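Technical note accompanying the year-one report. For the benefit of new consortium partners, we illustrate the data format agreed upon in the data management plan: each record pairs a sequence with a structure-token string. No post-processing was applied to the example shown here.
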Amino acid sequence: MSETNRDAAATLILRLGLSWFIFLWAAHKIITPGQYAQLARHFDGIDPSFAQIYAVGAIQIILCLLAAVGLFRLLSFGALAVMHVFTITRRWDGFFDPFALNDSGFPIHRNQVIDLAVMAGFIALILLIHRDRWSIGGWLDRRRGPAWWH
């Protein structure tokens, strides 16, 4: 496999994996909006309506689909990364005690480790946009030349 194809395969894997990761969270907003209303009350002190939760979930799903096919890459990858930064900032305390256990011995902050790995993936994906050849955006770049927004 050529270096160009390895890079394209790597960005495809990152693109699909990260899009799927965020898509699952977005889809659950549509499936179980009550759970997200409780989380918003607990973490953010707000009381969103189900309509607001559905709207946020729908926007996130659209961004995930755009990122998955590699369309408007800087916008879609960047928006998903910013959403993930929001998640990280809401759970910041767990980063300072990564080995904490609950009364049953279960690690309670292990999702924060996952959060950091996902953020690293988003950063890598954004840095590798120019290597993302197996996407609609990559195809468009080859047809008309790269645009600043990719």
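Partners are asked to follow this layout when depositing records. The two ends are 25 Å apart (CA to CA).
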